[in-house]
Amino acid sequence: MSAKSPRILLRCIAAVVAGFALLCSAVWGEAPVSSPRVLTAQWQQQFSAQLTGLDLTWAGQTVALSVAPFTTDGESYVHVYDLTGRELWTAERRRKILSVSLSYDGQYTAVGLTDFSIAFFAKDGELLWERKSVGIPALSPPGNTVVAFNVGIASPPNLFGNPLLEVFPQDGNKSWSLHRKGRVWRSIVSDQSDLLVGLWSDEVLLIDRHYRTTWQRLLPKEIMALAISPQDAQYFAIGVGVLKPIVYFYERTGRLVWERELPLGVTDLSLARQGEFLLSYGNTIRGQHLALYRRSGEMEWTYHLEAPATESSKAVIVPDYPLIVAGIQRDERYYLQGFALTGRLLWIAPLPEPIFDFRVSRDGRYIAAATERTLFFFDTQPVNGPKAELQQ
Q1: What spatial distance separates the first Cα and last Cα of the chain, rounded to whole Å?
Q2: DSSP code per residue over 90-103
Q3: Given phi > 0 = left and psi -120 to 50 = alpha, else beta, which region is 107?
Q4: At 185, which helix (H) or strand (E)?
Q5: Model confidence over 76-123: pLDDT tens digits?
Q6: What is the reported pTM?
């Protein structure tokens, strides 16, 4: 495991010093902390290949990532680490790995390959099965089943259309599939194994845990983002539109609770439990924009940077702790930032390169963040007491 080099450390320190004035000048519903804590990675791992996938277990005890060569030639790998940075196991595939998905408890790992096949591994790295499927896999929480979403057409259409998704239990024998015309553009699996699927045709389907389509709607604009409330799965949200973005907030029954125009754009959505809060994030030509809404539709606060980030990012509401984590770019500097639900800035975690992706444990303590070639692992808990500062 590689240690952080002095050069990277100096870049991070310079980024913090230069960025403080900008960070503290943001306009929120509540004045930000004048000196937020600065997080440094507990450990990091650098790779010679490109990171293509990242995932973290609910408790943050296990992190998995996939790496692949920049060209089509060469081997791809999946690496699995514990929270101390110790590598638990690694596996090699001959075809390029496009994504990785961990089960919520770390018992299983699934990877998706360029030939639309899925490889399914046990906790110790043993390959349990490999199946040809339709696309990118996601592990469904309760039963650790694999749901593969067709994000590209794997086979010619037939009378029933293309398979939009396929479901594989732990034994690898396909148990269900959905055939429709088109392909999947956005998708999310709830904590209860519900599927919210947005198609390229601008149609959205809500499929319950028994694989019944309980709601579907053809929306008038492009589907940009989806979200389902964690744990209870009683609310879902859809962000649509590029030129005139709108967010729709629904009850699980499909009843529209409210809708709101988002003139600054929406590229990602996140919901709190029981739909108590909805967070929208936009990274468009209009800049980077965060907005937090209550379940009633009342806006709590907004935050806006006029310059867009060069890489797409996201923002999430942590399911089991009152915390928001967002990926932010200021000029040529990159940060993860932690906010209270009031909008108050609690901490920042500088990164030396654009953020490819990040994952947060359900209690908000651990964060795995990936740049193009490096994995960083953060512990947000203060050393002077268990989460004392985060509770201010």
Answers
A1: 35
A2: EEEESSPEEEEEE-
A3: alpha
A4: strand 184-189
A5: 999 999 999 999 999 999 999 999 999 999 999 999 999 899 999 999
A6: 0.88
